[in-house]
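Self-study notes.
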Amino acid sequence: MGGVVGVCLMLALLVGHLSSVVLAVEPWEVAEVVDDSSVDVAYCQGRREQIVYAGSSITACVSGRQSQLASFFFNGANRVAWRSSVMSEFLPIEGVCLARQACHYDESNNRLIDQSYGDHFSLRLSIHELFSQRVVSREASYEFNDDSNLSWALKNPTGVPVVTGKIGLSTNGRWAAIEQIEGGVLFLDINSRQAVKISSEARFYDRGYNPRYEFAVANDGRTVAVGGGNVGFGLIEVSEGCGIDLDSEAVADCSKSDWGVIEQVGGLASTVQLRFSNDSQSLNLVVIGYDGHRQAVLLKRNGPTTEPPDPPIVPKLYMALGDSFTSGEGELEDKYYLPSTNLTDEKCHVSRRSYPYLLQTVNYERKNIACSGAKIDDIAGSSTYWGQNERLKLRSDHIDRQNQAWDEFIPGRRRQIDFVARYQPNLVTLSIGGNDSGLMDKLRACAGPGECRWVNNNLRYQTADEIDRLADRLENLISRLKQIMSETSRLVVVGYPLSIVPRGPCDIITANLFSVRERQFLNQAVIRLNKVIASAASQSSIDYIDVSTAFAGAELCSRSQILAMNGLRLGDDFGLASRFFPLKLIGNESFHPTPAGHELLAGRIDSYLAGENLTCGAECDDDNDYWFAEAPARRVVSTQFDMIKTVCDDGCRLSTTATFAPNSVVRVSIQSDPIQLMVTTVDPEGVLETMIQLPESLSSGYHTLIVSGETQNGQPVEL
């Protein structure tokens, strides 16, 4: 469980940290004692019920309602299995719950309370957040993807893992009572990760009768019931001022009493099935005498009860997911970017004037989690996430930054889907695909000298193919979002706006950057992408909002005085060609919606949310003639921008993913005017690693590097 260790937080907590538990404790009394030899005494933190496993119906200890975790004895061994909300049968789960019975799933908070083996088979407490999203389905099992950023382990103030035994949880998932092996009883606030020792009364192993603890914790966090075998019975009252730091040698135990239970039942050998009522005012348990006689006991709080405070009014939450067209990239002034989204190494560029903050029909709290440059994997990729473009991977404070992201809703540091899972927004808008399709990279390339190659009739199909391949990934993304959202929440998918008039009157800079054919190509690419997005939404039974004509009359190369779209903007984000412009002169705001554009987008989305039927017009007509009229019979797999990397100084170091046939010949060229740079051979893994020299004759501007060859299947491919 090395991933857990990476995020372990040391608990250096002082007496009195449990200040939230401050009510005066009323004494308890035994209200009822009933002989009951039929009660099930098997230990279970959850519910004992029948499950289907390996084709058999067996009795298991189950936690969770929709998704469920079960522990049970089967074919001579203790086992743990998982059932996702969409499956009927339990399957084994790997990578977690290695201690088998010492594992509990808290569905309300989507966290797993786990114990893993340390040195000499000692148990260590771990808490895994966002658990269900980290469980991956295999052919005949599930696998847990460990992620140090989403897991926590109990350590003492010196950083040493605490050796733990039995654990008891409150039914609301807030509190835990923990046996510290031969050290007493610990009390943990699971939400804040604060822990103190509430009893230093220790029971020892291998000295005769080994202890066998069982705990129950009241939902109000005021009382811990301690029972089991060879440990006696008592209620520990947790109040302000009691409890000590985990490594302290001082004694400040919280008060403990059995409130007459032992006397009334005539002595006991063990107590089992300890259960507090949801309102924390009563406790049920089963007492087992030395002769095996069983008695069901009910304890009640004596005296006036304290009414719990009214639950806080939780405002409805709207959350926007997506890329730069949602974040607000394109602002006219940096002062409108939210804190932590315009740092040197973090430029999600979330603007206060982006459309999520301008919607009039959404009377909710709003959080914009979109990030400039985001792709589908930044929304719901690998659970081991180092931030967008791995921006946190080399930072020593990456854990602090990711924790800060939770509280301050800072995008780019955590997967966007994790915010949805944690905060359960009532409304989510999703707009993604522009970067995955390579559309934004092609836009930059087309802004270079000469016409970009993709506008040519015999090459346009490559772009269409690349866009079309997004369909399955988009459907999978939507499906994953639906799975983690509540049934009462709403997910809406938003497309992209057309941003330029192909034959309109452009300003002199835009006219020189984009030919008429390039402008038409960019618009057709947006239309194609919107069709794929709309189809994915339809296949998933999710609403799609068509915003393709939201900028009508205010596009680039229109006659409008106030444009919805930026043209080329000066800035400090990148240069046209690093060899000739070592300074970063161009802003990422280039070719992105202006604040006026975001007002238009908000208006279009408001109209849809208010019930207007927004269907697309001529832009939704069949466009295959444009894309495929001159496509060759043997089509080349289109460009994948994220599969090739270059680092340029005096020369350029070029590396690719394992794409090509082993030891095959590839050609490296640079556009716009095609210049072949080299013909070389890839390694036995199909990877190209080489240095290239840029020709002296290369003109200034944004250029595209292309590596062409064949895949292992003999299909032509270009990166």
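Second protein, same conventions, sequence then structure:
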Amino acid sequence: MLLYKMVTMLIATLCLAIVVNAKVDKQEWWTAKHFAKNKMFPMAAGAYADTPMMQRCIRKVDKDAINLNGFLSAKCRFDEMCYVFTAVLPNHRAIVISFRGTDSGKSQLIDEALGNALFKHEWKYGGHVGRYFKMAFDNLWNSLAIQLTSFLQVQKYRRYELWITGHSLGGALANLAASWASVVFPNNRIRLVTFGAPRVGDLKFRDALERRVKFIYRITHASDPVVRIPWSGYYHAGKELWYKKGMSSTTGFCHGKGNGDCIETCEAPEELNGRPAGCAESAGWKNFISWSFRAKLKELYHYHTEYYQDLTKNSLSKWGELGCP
């Protein structure tokens, strides 16, 4: 009888621990969802604007936000330009780095996919990354490093968090920026959130980034094709908030293993037909295959820009261009 009671108490304790952990996990995900949508999304959208409208976007998050030098720009490759801005959010005690996404439309998107699928370059902080992403980041790097250094020379900013974000190509560059920052910045103060970002590097790159940066979330839409490229040998880092459709405030999301709102294929194994699978990849892959053959490039591109339409009423970039109203 005594043994029976002890076993019963042990089982009850374990069940309680599981319930508590589930609540903690659920709270973590809802907190991340709120942070991504209401804090980081206006920053990512603002990267598509001119300087006055970008400043409206960042002040939507912090009324006292400071942007000192507008945008930094450099050639990604050939005649394609890449952009980034930095800002300080004093009320959130955060420094922001936000990279603009694909700027010249579908042709740049194709260049990114092909340039990265065919070639990888070594990344000095671990693993290999897509050639196009590395070239774009390296070209922006000198100016960005100078600006960040000037921020960190101000004593009060040295204890701030570092928030890094971007959409599409901007999300890929944000991954590289977080990798660099993790070497020179306290890891527990780095937050990386991306929207519709492609895969950036190989397994070694992903593992190195996840070891150094603990707060990594990628927001994905079920029908966004960009989150599925490049294919072979590339991996996503961090946790995924995956929206099934529409991305309204009430849409369900899944986080790796599903939460009841996701279709069962979201629980697919790490590798799906030789490709690394996340929620967006596994949940929509069969539909994507049949759908993509009959879809036009314009339709693909539309899905890629269709994030949080309850806020934007249009595309992410157009919302940013209007100052995130």
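Instructor comment on the second fold: Residues 2-46 form the longest helix (45 residues).
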